[in-house]
Amino acid sequence: MSTDLDNFVGLSSALIGISTDRLAPQIDPVGLPPIFLDYVTARISSDVLNALLTQYATLAADHVPPDQIAEQILKFNMQPTIPDTVLAARSIMKLWLLGVWYQPFDTSDFKKGSSEVVADQAYIYSWAWKIAQAHPMGYSESFFGYWNGTPPSLKDLTGVSANGQQGASS
Question: What predicted TM-score, i.e. pTM, was given to this entire model?
Answer without folding.
Answer: 0.84
